[in-house]
## 1
Amino acid sequence: MFVGHYAFGLLLKKKFNEISLWLLFVAVQLVDILAFIFVLLGIERIRYNPSPNPFLRTIIEYVPFTHSLFGNAILAGMVFLLFWKLNSRRWASVLAIGVLSHWFLDVLVHTPDMPLFFDSYKVGLGLWHLPILSFAAEIAFLLLAGIILLKGSPQINRYIVLVTLLVVAYGGMFFAPEAEAKAAVVAFSSLTIYSFYTALAYWCERRKA
Ligand SMILES: [Zn+2]
């Protein structure tokens, strides 16, 4: 899942306005950020799978630390402790919920490749088997969250740019022609994309000079 995670971040922003959007974006996507770093380091493994369905072209083969429910919960716990120390219990709770949301949103769409504990007991409801429905549902979730956040927001134009660019990027991924990509290339380009949207979220909230 890609933009659905950010949609959840937008909803958190609406409810907990004092927390920066870029930080919420890092939280909801932290599992994938770490997964791709682990792939580059050779700790976790993804591989290319030839398929006409764009969602099934990347198989997460061995992701026990980031994409197991247990690993995700540990990560959320670490984020909680860090922000409890750095900031407040409220920030810690919200960011930890953001981190933990990743697994539960992923499990809706993934085929049964999401482990509960390290590399075992893999689950996934497999909405990705219906690519058009998955794509439409994720975009709808993003737009809905965007509209909820935008109501009464002062920086409305920038948020519209952010949501539009998310839709464009996701459309690009979905409609891109099938091409075999090396795991390192997928990891590196995904990390670049996540950095871009984090920067954009920061820009959305920067006060105009
Ligand atoms: Zn993920």
Note: The radius of gyration is 17 Å.
## 2
Amino acid sequence: MKTNKTLKVLERTIKILKPPQNMKPSEWAEKHLILPDGAAAGQKLKLYSFQKEMLDIIDDDRYRKVVYKTSAQIAKTTLLNSALFYWMGTDSSNIGIAQSSLAELKQWKSAKIDKTIEQVPVLQELVTDKNDKTKANNQQQTELNDGSFLYFMTLGSAKALRGKTLKRIILDEVSAIDQHSEEGNPIRLAEQRATDFGQEAKILISSTPTFKGDAIDVEYQNSDQREYFVKCIHCQHEHSLKWENVKFEWKLNGKRSIPDAITAKLHCPECQEIITESQRIKMVANGRWIAQNPEITDTAGFFINRLYSPNSTIQAIAKDFELAWYEYNYQSFYNTVLGLHYSDLQEELDDLALENLRDDTFDLSNIPDSVLGIVVGCDQQLDRLEAQVLGINESELFVLGYRYFYSPNCEIKGAKAYNDLATFCNQKFKTVSGREVPVLKVAVDGGNGRAMQTVHSFCQQYKKFEMIKGSSSTTGDLFKRSTTDGRQFYMLNVHEGKTWVRSLLNNAVAGKTDAPLTIRFAHDLPDDYFDQLTSENLERTGSGVRWKQITGRRNEALDTLVYSLCMMKLALSKLGGQPFKKLREYRSTKRQEIAPDNTPIEQPSETRNKSTKYIKPANKTSIGKSWFG
Ligand SMILES: [Zn+2]
């Protein structure tokens, strides 16, 4: 292959002949730049492996826009500065530099940019003398010897952008700005300043995130969404580093369990082996960026967080989580450490406010007269079934009660717990005035493969019993008829159900009485009932968000409430166009039958009356489980 050889020789020659300004941006930066501050002040810049592609992409003409969604402490400013200095040093042009606030902007300009220029000869010779009165140098601009300018502005003062033509724009901390300001979205306004340059224009947009839907979220969603993948040192499995793969034990702090940061270890999600600090650093050094949304070809987006930082440790990050946990302050941990968005659905609900939702006026023995029907959601565990009983009408949901039915093995057919559940659900529930309330639907979880046959054949015996399974998908109908191995069941979109529960809870805690549907809770629900309802956090996944269980927390109450809500929707769907009218008609027939019958609500022998709190059979640590479930 002579041509190939010739080509190679030619390539090599060209490389040698290429002037230094045609180095890759990362090479140029490492050759010339000096760190202006911090522990390594005065030393030569050394980029992290993952930063190289983040920087080199500014020379790739396919991408007009580059988005950096990052945690704090991952040398984001170094990256933006390197881009700025590379442009200054190799292809001068007007460059706009914008920060969220004036204070941030001043800090950036004087402590980082000006200071670096002073220390780096190749930059110093480009800039006009500060003391030359014929040149326009001030806080808003720096004039270069060739007549081009660096313009400094805040994102809030979009007016400052008018009349300027900028080939390159750097926007930092965009999530701190109001995207819907009267003056217009500052990101769009900034982009318009660069339209004259077409594909040659370059816009860098950077931020730590705040909430879902904030500016950096929107920009990253509209990019090719690159994530940094590393190869497991043990099994070669290629994966991106995620917080849920950090595992740890819990320690007692007074009565509260809190994470024990010292025990935190990163694990491979595939082989589960521990990845040590030196292995993590080695893996990161050899990682690569992979686009998760490659259909987008004109905007490159990078997501990186502290789990990748060679300057941090897993234990240090876990220490931050321990503090966040202790202070109930998850948002800053999500934003600044993980570089993830935080949804208000995730906002920590106040424990006391939740406990105050317990309502003394009703329970299973005192069902309000406004209840028109009952639905039950039941979860299957090895040694028990757990059932949540929900009373419904058009505008109110009453969590009437919570019951446990025990058997040594609930996976096998004929386990007594099923009979107890059937007896419980088939009894005649009555309101305080003695009117009978129909049980419309009972869902029993058949998601455990070993118990599925048992659950299915049990549900077959009664028309109102339905086997259900939770779907792993976050999209789709709330409930959907499905079949597996000839067995019919309902597939539930539990993700949507959990989101529904959280918004019901948020409204209840906020005391919103004007919501279309309000939820109320009986006083005698288990002690840890609300702890369970809030046992999952909304976590970002590749392209969306997903509820994830917090390690060490039980979530059956959340699951069974979701099941009963789904059963409500299912039951109503079977009652035609005006389901509540039908239920009211049914109620009026039952009203006539009211008899002075005060039979107490049936309590299966093993139901705990005194304390309804479920006690863990053994004291297990959470090692081996992930943070979020
Ligand atoms: Zn592995």
Note: The chain has a mean pLDDT of 85.
## 3
Amino acid sequence: MQVVGTGDLSSGLRRPSGMRDRIDRWMTGEGTVRILTATSTAMAQEAARVAGSAPAVSEALGDLLTGVALLELAQSPVERVQCSFDHDGSAGQLVADVWPGPEVRGRVKNPQASAEPLIGTDGELRISRHGFRGGQVYQSRLPVSGGSIAGALQQFCLESEQTLTLFSLATVTEADGRISRAGGMIVQAMPDCEPEHLAGVTACLEQADFAALVRAGEAPADATMALLDRMDLHVLGHDPLLYQCRCSLERAVGAVRTLSPEELEEVRGGRVEEVVCDFCSHQYLVGQPELDATAPAAEK
Ligand SMILES: [Zn+2]
């Protein structure tokens, strides 16, 4: 597995201006408050297409994926961060799986849900981080309340990570159901942040609302600049943001190898196993030829 750095990649990549999904990172003049803004329209559109979700569910899924991508890049950029949000709303469990990059995939239990509320007020957030070096997994679970994805992530940062991080998320769908814009912003106090530094930022944030600006048609990065113009922001870097399912025939074969010896014998005898990706529903058929083609050397 290749670890993708989080440096400024923009100089080495040709990027059509403003078209590609990305996360922009800034720091305030004092260097104690960090701001990350995601432009995630294409990512949210792809997530909705893969999930086959109704517009309102697509908005919730887009918000969760955008929020967890921001969290991954801010807190653990070289780790895989998985987040599952269980709650008592009709959309059911939402899952985000973010790999270094960030590369994102997600799913929702009831993509066509319509009964209000889609997101329930009582929930539980489970977040796990998988380190690439050493392979340790850290898990946290936290009861959350309020029925908002931004609020749940904010509560997680404050209570589980002891970091003050404000989340603002917006996934906008049009009358025809299409996602026209998606984005998110986090504002994070660094450990040496003085109360007056934060007060300056919160005063700016009280003037207008990031999500409302994005819903009104503002590009996410422009919305951040409009809100925090007075804070003397300097650019830390940019990272590309992608929707990417990571399933493959190789992984499907790996899953079939975990069957019991008796079942594996049946596959070798001609039975074909169907393996379906939890995230994108892609179907892989694994029979004896596939097992043989990717057999570990020791088995040959
Ligand atoms: Zn897949």
Note: The chain is about 30% helix and 30% strand.
